[in-house]
Amino acid sequence: MTLLDAPKYDPAKGRRRRNIILIVVAACIIIAGFLWYFWDWPEQHLVNQFFTAIEAGDMPKAFGIWNHDPNWQQHPQEYKAYNYGHFLNDWGHSSDWGDIKTHNIVMTRTVGSGVVVGVDINGQKTPIFLWVQRSNKTLGFSPVSLSNSVFGATTN
């Protein structure tokens, strides 16, 4: 076949090809945006579960979520560094926030190997920052405080 023997151009086939390419590119952009927006959702969900347990007064469950160990009561000796009594001082009735009745996640950022989650407790304007380790889903107090700027992260 020579150049002069080439088949005739089919505009319908060209439109179909263009439309398929546009749909694939648009789908890739939408999926990328979806992943970017919901990247920290599992960690936010974990923090929500933690505060929901505290608000319900289920402190043993909250301690299990904190350590990502729902059966922590079967081996409490593993948590000597931050035991249940210390946890109750930080999150119970005698905590800095008193009885925790409401919470609202106000900011989230991936930092290193974990996620820093800023939470307003009981409507206070200054959030507390919790750290969620991505590898083992344990919670802790964050070594990083976030600011309201777009990329702001300052260390304590």
What do you see in this structure?
The protein is α+β, with helices and mostly antiparallel strands and 156 residues long. The chain folds into two domains: 9-36; 40-155. Helix content is 37%, strand content 21%. The strands form two sheets. Strands 1-2-3-4 form a four-stranded antiparallel sheet, with helices on one face. Strand 5 and strand 6 (153-155) form a beta hairpin. Helix 2 (41-55) runs antiparallel to helix 3. The N and C termini lie far apart (73 Å).
Rg over C-alpha atoms, rounded to the nearest angstrom: 25 Å
**Beta-strand level of the residues, as a percent range?**
15-25%
- Termini separation comes to 73 Å
Q: What's the story with the biggest beta sheet?
A: 4 strands, antiparallel
- Give the strand order of the largest sheet, numbering strands 1, 2, ... along the chain: 1-2-3-4
Quantity of strands, as a count: 6
Low-pLDDT residue intervals, each spanning 5 or more residues: 149-156
Count of separate DSSP helical elements: 4
Percentage of residues assigned to helices: 25-40%
What general form does the structure show?
Answer: elongated
